[in-house]
Amino acid sequence: MPPLVRTAATARSVSIFLALLVVGQRADALIIRSNQTAAVGILIVNAEASSRDYLLSATEKAEPGWVIVYLQAGVIDITDEITAPGGLTVSVPPGPGGLAVQAVFLPAGAPENSIKTTTISAVPADGNGPSQDRSLTVRLLTTIVVNDARDLEDPDPLDELIDTDPAHPGEQTTLRAALNFCNARSGFDSIAFNIPGPGIPRLLPQTPLPEITSPIEIDGTTQPTTDLVGIEIRGEALPTANSTAGLVISAGNSTIRGLALTRFRSTKFGLIPSPAAPNPSGILLRGLGGNTVEFCLLGVAPSGQIGAGNEGYGLRIESSGNTVTDCLVSGNWVGGIGLFGPDATDNTISSSIGGSLGGTHSSNFLAPALRVEGLSFSPHNATPILSTLDSNLANSSIHFVQLSQSTPWESTQAGFLGGIVLHNAPRNIVTGSSVQGNGADGIRLLGNATETLLQSNVIGQIMGGSPTLKNAGHGIALECDQAHLLGNETSGNARSGVLVRGSDNLIEGLTSSRNGECGIRCEGFRTTIGGTPFQTKGQFFSNPTGILLTAPVVPVNFTPGNNRIWGNLIGAKSPFGVGQLTPSPNLRGIHIDGSDDNVIGGVTLSGLFNTIVYNHHEGILVTKGEGNALIGNTVFKNGLLGIDLSNSEEGDGRDPSDPGDLDVGGNSKTNAPALLQAVQGPSAIHILGSLAAGSTGSYHIEFVFLDPQLSLNASQFTILVGFEFAQGTVPLTLDLPTTTDLRGSYLRLSVTDPDSNSSEHSRWVRIEGSTHSDNDGVSDEIESRVPSRSAVGTGDGNGDNLPDANQMSVASLPLLEGGYLTLAALPSQSLRSVISTSTPALQPNSHLSFPHGSWSFGFSPVIAGTSSISIFVTGDAVAPNYYNFGPTPNNPAPHWYDFSFDGSTGAQILADRVILHFMDGQRGDHDLTTNGVIATEGGMAHLLPALPNPRFMPLVDGSIAILWDNTLPGLFLQETPSPATTPWQFMNQAPLVTGSSATLRVLPDSGSKLFRLGRP
Fold first, then answer.
1. DSSP assignment, residue 238?
2. Pairing of the two strands 848-849 and 934-943
């Protein structure tokens, strides 16, 4: 090039020609997009002392769709003249300023990847001196196609090619060269792929890829394969101590699609990384936000079935307004997706986090895994085999490395572990995500995560899914304030479905089942669980505890309590939230253990009440905590008491009323009312009882009405009435106004004292009518409604064609469990105190079921020898066995015993009735006294199938697998160090079920333990 010729300042905006003109790359040869215009040119320099004429000409290479406009001094359009055959004569002043001539390239109709060339010549008009020539080239390239898997730079980034290997024919474009090129020019760029060769190309950067500082779209789905993910970018060839993520995007408004980013680590490939930060992630979004990451595999190989984890997170977000959708984020060592810092706001995540593509399996195992009956367990305190740990599909798999040691990754203070982690990142949304098979919590919110919304996510092992898909920690951990959960499902997680450790969190529409510890473990303050609208009501079933309210196990800056639980279904499930309930018991419904001032339920008609049914043990157990209001709930058909206030970690049964109410335990063991009688008149129910009040003040009495002839959903309702009580034992005599006929229904009472301590329930009492013609304890109005065994009508339960209400020897009544019972003695005998009793209030029995519940009654006089009573139940539904509850001559403690007929006493089971035979003072007469009166309690029973015998299998890591045949679904395991002194405790995890076996692994500690199985 002649020494006096130099290139003009390039790529100036020419808005008079094109309103969308964009400044191009600073080079002689430019690559532009279809929405850009490039202005390049020549500076003609006159070395003489005075002005001189030059002849200008332009010669263009033909290329369809291109237009070139030529400008003199950037203003005067000289296109027609400079392209004419004779050219254009111009005067060039002397000096270094010379005369600038520009060619403005406009690619409005040009095809993609076409090249337009022009040559501008300036020849002295007098022919004296050299010509000044400049060849100008512009390329239209909107989408850069990567066609070379090597990690090479473009040696000449200023030419019209992105060619990293000029020695070979064609243009060899690598990802690194494409990223550098896109960063060098402003505006939005697209990168596509067409790398030749079989399978999915694997790119191995030798040094960190350049940070993306200009908006971009990188689309791996353009690679010609049949897979959605077309390109894998692996970090295993990076130098040791690498701290850079696979792709770092700070430009914002970019899209990453169809890529797999794997094995970006700080250590040499094949070594376990150090916990010391920074831990490189697959993708890091920082700076400007508004990015989209979609259809990517982060930490998992392109097959979607084998882990290839990044050391940090699959995706780390430190910016706002990003969208993550349809990705699979698995196998990463610290976590799946992490959102960090106050700038990480307004992000939306909707992806699969943990497990394999298709959600069929994960692992969570160190190698070699311990296999028991088709299940695999991680060895305890084992040294991992890296190849297996590396191929793990669980995010936070590093959580399992050397479990006996305390590492920062495992620390609750520093462990930002889990499938999705939000740390001091408020106002984000996680919706429609599947979060399964992670090595710690499924979703964990830490610090300032206010206004975070978790909606419609599935967290944990779905029904019928692989046991390895359970998250190894909690499903969701809310270690934050003011988060909102709506319509999520947390199932089969190793710990709780949801952990709450913060203030003012709102949990609505949660379905939580089959978790190892609880449906919800609430250590929080002012948490709301459930609600009154349909979509906010929760369902908690098949957990050891449905909802646990307890004290935090780590220091917090609040006092736990003041939580609200309302509108939930606990112990059953209803797929559509309405209609028939399917029993799916928790071991316990609600347990309050170290939390104060909570409100469980509300007035029935308000929709605030919880339905707490079918649980194996207590409906509500309060062992530690004061001021807990337990009001308005439907608590029925649980294995033990509906409400049990206890002074130990286990329930202790119904408490006797103590003068002064001085005993210690949950809710101060507030005395329940003693209910003696309820009689309905024309306008009110007259109630007799008493209350041993512990303090003077305003109490609320809850009246719980049960109509056993209705379905469970509609059978029970409550009324709260305020009363002023004086300290001491106070008679409870009141009239409850009502015109609704409730005769034959049942009533029980509880109270809530001035400090909001609710009591246990009183015993059930049948609401009688006012007329008792036969003095058997059942009013005429009730006996007249019993279905008749004679041809027509009602009121003749034994079919003798005489009204039962007129016979002292016959009593008919509705049962608590539904249906009707008729007792018939000899005509000379009188029945008395005929009561349908509550089987759950009695000592539990693991091998019997009572389809009609139980009943107690007395009769006299007893003649010498044997006296007999006939028993009829609705529909002739006679169970094959009869068991009594009470003392026997050889065992004075009340207990269940077989009352089969032994020739003198016991039950004869006939086709349509049971005949009970008694002898005064003998077996079956529970006063065990010869006094002319028989008093007894019992019921028809089915013998349940025998429980299987558990098998114990010591494993090589020191743990023990306990196995049993799964022929009886729903069995659970209990343990105790000493059954003579300590109540049986529940194991804190649900068994794993595969095929016909159920398995639960325990880690022995000091001392021996005993185990037994329980049944639903």
1. S
2. antiparallel
Q: Using alpha carbons, select from 482, 478, 309 the residue that is nearest to residue 401.
A: 309
Contact 483, 455 (CB under 8 A): no
Paired residues of 42 in beta bridges: 7, 101
The continuous run of DSSP H or E covering 511 comes out as strand 511-513
| Residue bearing tokens 């090479």 | 152
Q: DSSP secondary-structure letter at 184?
A: H
Cα-Cα-Cα-Cα torsion 67, 73, 79, 81, nearest 10 degrees, comes to -160
Could you say which DSSP state residue 561 is in? B
Q: What are the angstrom distances between the C-alpha of 471 and each of 316, 395, 419, 498?
A: 20, 10, 9, 12
For the record, the structure tokens of 328 come out as 């699979």
- Choose between 715 and 833: higher pLDDT: 833
Q: What integer pLDDT is reported at residue 818 of this predicted model?
A: 87
Classify residue 907 as exposed, middle or buried by CB count within 10 Å of its CB (0-12, 13-18, 19+): buried
Half-sphere exposure of 185 (CA within 13 A, CB side): 27
Q: In sequence order, what E strands does 180-317 have? A: 189-193, 202-203, 216-219, 231-234, 247-249, 255-257, 259-262, 283-285, 292-294, 297-298, 313-317
Burial label, 535 (beta-carbon count in 10 A; 0-12, 13-18, 19+): exposed
For position 727, what pLDDT does the model report? Answer: 77
pLDDT tens per residue, range 605-631: 677 899 999 998 899 999 999 999 999
* DSSP code, position 712: H
For the entire predicted model, the pTM comes to 0.89
Q: Are strands 283-285 and 498-500 parallel, antiparallel or unpaired?
A: unpaired
- Give the DSSP H or E segment for 500: strand 498-500
Q: Answer for the pair 475, 420: CB distance below 8 angstroms, yes or no.
A: no
Beta strands per DSSP E along 538-683:
539-541, 545-550, 564-566, 569-570, 572-573, 582-583, 588-593, 599-601, 611-613, 620-624, 629-631, 634-636, 643-645, 674-680
* Coil/strand/helix, residue 71: strand
User: For residue 108, which of 200, 19, 230, 233 has the smallest C-alpha distance?
Assistant: 19
Residue 482: which region, alpha, beta or left (left: phi > 0; alpha: psi -120 to 50)?
A: left
Type of residue at 291: N
CA 55 to chain centre: 79
User: Closest Cα to residue 25, out of 177, 187, 173?
Assistant: 187
Give me the sign of the Cα torsion angle 835, 837, 580, 879: negative
Q: Quick check: helix, strand or coil at residue 841?
A: helix
628: nearest Cα among 591, 586, 673: 591
Beta-carbon-side half-sphere exposure of residue 915 (alpha carbons within 13 Å): 12
Question: How far apart are alpha carbons 98 and 82 in whole angstroms?
Answer: 18
pLDDT tens by residue, 896-911: 999 999 999 999 999 8
